Amino acid sequence: MIRDDALSEVLRLVRLRACVYFARTMEAGWGLSAPATVNGPVHLVLEGRCILRIGTEEHELSAGDAVVLPRGAAHTMLDTAAARPMGGGSIIERLRALPEPATGVARMLCGHFEWDGTLDHPLFSELPQVILVRNMLGREGGALFSTIVDLITAEQSGDAPGASAVTDRMGEVLFVSLLRAWIADNVPTHGVLATINDPRLARALSYIHQNHARDLDLSRIAREAGMSRTSFATRFHEAMGMPPGAYLTEWRLLQARHLVAGSDLALPDVVERVGYVSEAGFARAFRRRFGETPAQLRRAARAA
Questions:
Q1: pLDDT at site 1
Q2: CATH code assigned at 242
Q3: Same domain as 283, residue 217
């Protein structure tokens, strides 16, 4: 049986989704100019080479290299530095309408990932503007990654029912695989990813996620990490940037927002389910965190 882990729980809470636009051969001189977006664009070079230009930065990408732009920054993908890119909001539609050339200078897989931005878990504020992962296909675990890419390209080239749904689900796997590789390359020292990357703290974090409705105390969470109360509190605070109790409160309130906006549970039931004893205390904490009361959020969600 596969145990849940802290990163999976965060991604499930924020409802991570992906959309794969295409996996296709690009003709010589190709270029794409993408405007800023609320989504996180993803580009993977399957064959050949290309250039990523973002602001004043320029990165040369080779086969197996991948880039994710978590903040949706405006960027340009180019065959060469001299290429003239296509621009505008209909780039993807135009490319999909064009027949794929028999030969070309590069083969690209492009898409985006997205999540519920109202559930602003601190993980997403920590991700850099550019996540660049080199040689995804040639590193340890590359064979599995290559299989995922093969599945996406096979579905893209066919017309089987549900092909789009399959490619999008595989796109989610693609994103998580890229995030794992980036964590392995960069070894974060601060924040959610640093906490997840520490086996003992990760056990405690997952325990908080799965037991937030219970009356948790620091001693119980520290035991889950296999650490003393003081050592755990110090190490968690240093890694996460906030005390364990503050993170527990944050997780409870994010869960509460999800339930208030997305379910028909009565508000007293929401309060109990996320681990609050006092409905009034919950309402105050909720308003402090989100700038509106649970009742206001529910009315707005139902109106929408």
A1: 35
A2: 1.10.10.60
A3: yes
Mean pLDDT of the chain: 91
Q: pLDDT band for position 89 (50/70/90)?
A: low
Q: Give the residue, 212 or 95, on which the prediction is more confident.
A: 212
Angle at alpha carbon of residue 188, lines to 185 and 191, rounded to 5°: 155
Task: Decide if 14 contacts 115 (C-beta within 8 A).
Answer: yes
The values of phi and psi at residue 155, to 5°, are -65, -40
Domain count along the chain: 2
Contact residues for 170 (Cβ-Cβ < 8 A; gap 6+) = 20, 148, 151, 152, 155
Instruction: Flag whether pLDDT at 2 surpasses 60.
Output: no
> Among residues 253, 7, 288, 272, which one has the least CA distance to residue 120?
253
Which one-letter amino acid corresponds to residue 99? P
Residue 17, CA distances (Å) to 13, 39, 188, 203, 249 in order? 11, 10, 24, 25, 26
What mean pLDDT comes out for the span 149-164? Answer: 85
State the first-to-last Cα distance of the chain, in angstroms, to the nearest integer: 39
